[in-house]
Specification:
212 residues, alpha/beta, Uracil-DNA Glycosylase, subunit E, two-stranded antiparallel ribbon, globular
């Protein structure tokens, strides 16, 4: 089970996006409305990778357009990062969910599904050649960096691309908490503290980008 056979050997982001639309490399495509590929400028120096599309993303066909995406926009702005110059994508390109009444409830992709979709992320990075890859949340961090990385402990720390699970990525890799996790925090003080930590992590990314 892998997307590798669907990934074109040549071409830019538009060709990858077109090919991904027909990917059946794992079972998740069967219940998804559509493949949600990455979006952003081809010259982006920062790539942000999350876990998978949510309900809004699955319906609209674009990454980070739901509540977590709107919060991400705010956090990036606070840290001095222009979303318009950033490429955003997910480790898994299809929405995994179960029905609960009329609602579609997010389900975390398993290791096999993440591994099956990794060729698409590697292809995106091969074309974009960004300086920094920022993982949002534990699932993305483990998919990219490995199971020993703990976002709660290691967030904001930069690693060389050679230390990641990605083939051929020469940039830097870091991670922070996913905006959706901030949205789930009910205590106001705890949420403000967690938000400040994320903005600080993003500030570290902004500083590195400014030095490029």
């Amino acid at each position: 089970m892998s997307a590798e056979r669907f990934v074109p050997e040549r071409g830019g982001i538009d060709r990858l996006r077109s090919a991904a639309a027909g990917c059946t490399g794992c079972e998740l495509h069967a219940n998804a409305t559509q493949t949600v590929f990455g979006a952003g400028p081809a010259e982006a120096q920062l790539v942000i990778v999350g876990e998978q599309p949510g309900d809004s993303e699955d319906r609209e066909g674009l990454p980070f357009v739901g509540p977590a995406g709107r919060l991400l926009d705010q956090l990036l702005e606070q840290a001095g990062i222009d979303r318009e110059t950033t490429y955003v994508t997910n480790a898994v390109k299809n929405f995994k969910w179960i029905a609960k009444g009329k609602r579609r409830i997010h389900q975390r992709p398993d290791a096999g599904e993440i591994a099956a979709c990794r060729p698409w992320l590697e292809a995106e990075l091969r074309v974009l050649e960004p300086e920094i890859l920022l993982c949002l949340g534990a699932t993305a961090a483990k998919a990219v960096i490995g199971p020993k990385f703990r976002v709660t402990q290691d967030h904001g720390r930069f690693l060389a691309g050679s230390e990641s699970r990605l083939e051929g990525f020469d940039g830097s890799v870091t991670a922070t908490v996913h905006p959706s996790a901030l949205l789930r925090i009910r205590d106001d003080r705890e949420r403000r503290t967690a938000t400040r930590e994320v903005v600080a992590d993003l500030g570290g990314v902004a500083s590195r980008l400014a030095a490029v």
